[in-house]
From TrEMBL:
Keyword Transferase: yes
Subunit structure: Homodimer.
Protein name: Aminotransferase
PROSITE patterns, sorted: AA_TRANSFER_CLASS_1
EC number(s) recorded for this UniProt protein: 2.6.1.-
Record-annotated Aminotransferase class I/classII large domain positions: 28-392
Organism classification: Bacteria, Pseudomonadati, Pseudomonadota, Betaproteobacteria, Burkholderiales
InterPro entries noted in UniProt: Aminotransferase_I/II_large (IPR004839), Asp_trans (IPR000796), NHTrfase_class1_PyrdxlP-BS (IPR004838), PyrdxlP-dep_Trfase (IPR015424), PyrdxlP-dep_Trfase_major (IPR015421), PyrdxlP-dep_Trfase_small (IPR015422)
The protein's required cofactors: pyridoxal 5'-phosphate
Keywords: Aminotransferase, Pyridoxal phosphate, Transferase
A Pfam family of this chain: Aminotran_1_2
Amino acid sequence: LFAAVEMAPRDPILGLNEQFNADTNPAKVNLGVGVYYDENGKLPLLACVKAAETQLVEAARARGYVPIDGIAAYDKAVQNLVFGEGSEVLTAGRVATVQALGGTGGLKVGADFLKKLNPTAKVLVSNPSWENHRALFINAGFEVDSYPYYDAAKKGVDFDGMLACLNAAPAGTVVVLHACCHNPTGYDISPAQWEQVIAAVKARNLVAFLDMAYQGFGDGIAEDGAVVGQFVKAGLSFFVATSFSKSFSLYGERVGALNVVCDTKDETAKVLSQLKIVIRTNYSNPPTHGAQVVATVLSTPALRAQWEEELAGMRNRIKAMRAKLVERLQAQGVKGDLSFITTQRGMFSYSGLSKPQMERLRSEFGVYGVDSGRICVAALNDKNLDYVASSIAKVM
Ligand code: PLP
Ligand code: TYF
């Protein structure tokens, strides 16, 4: 039965973890996978999460099935966070929200629904993008192409190229857009540029699919989510996949959502019914724990305030690491303008290092980044910073 099965390539990023774990170099540093580590190099358990979990354990509830579209209080909390409490689309009942297995699950439920809605549509992802975007939409049955995004020479976004591509896309094309903290480059577009993207989406009848996996890691919860409000204001129907993996440090709990903004309340009910079919035929209904934790934190004022503080702590520590990385690289004699490192937003820095340089960083120094030159700034700390900076300086 399986004689013809070929070995599939491993995930280029998650595969690095295996290589890292097997490395015996005592100085090794993992800057590969996009995970936030604290100043001691540890994956944090947020205090707000611990407090919510204590409450939940004390309430000790039986574990029945959750509704197909998720825990109602969780979906509501997601909506308020993503669209803003009292937002016109919420009061009008124009958002279909379902709990999902992380941001990835939200993307997949949306992709499966879109495939039924418009089977011949093409999908465009940024060049480059999170590798799973392409794979996920291909596996949902779509042809996937890319729109220009990163401009290596400029160390920024090729916005003219991006816009020209969107303006040439056929009606119905699904455009996957990083709402904030672009993975892998760290370069985001400005609110004014978003307006131009929105105008193109509107004029060409494209389908915008926002992926917001890093809300709060750029400039703040409201600041990073502002693009969603811009799409709402434009009167568009669109998709937003969201994730709490990073912002709550709940990676393994798989807590995310898919939000679909519709034209009318009636349309929303129909869309929700279709999303529920996608879910039912894949995994029936979502898990309980992570969503309960998030819903508890977001709806309890004291815990919510604590979360915002902890999230700001993560965001500010990453920013401090960016500034220190620039400083240490300069101290190691690296010349040229390094301000791109502090311009970039979110967990990653597209360093501009080549594949051979990234390979040398791994083999000679045990410093693990992605072959594309992406390094996870959120894994830097005061203890590994000098070593990382001197290793980078040596391969440059
Ligand atoms: N989208 C982007 C751009 C990401 O970087 C990630 C990271 O993991 C995800 C989606 C998926 O997040 P999750 O782990 O919640 O599925
Ligand atoms: O880009 C990253 O590192 C994160 C984590 O298949 C990740 O988004 C990487 C690969 C993958 C799933 C998650």
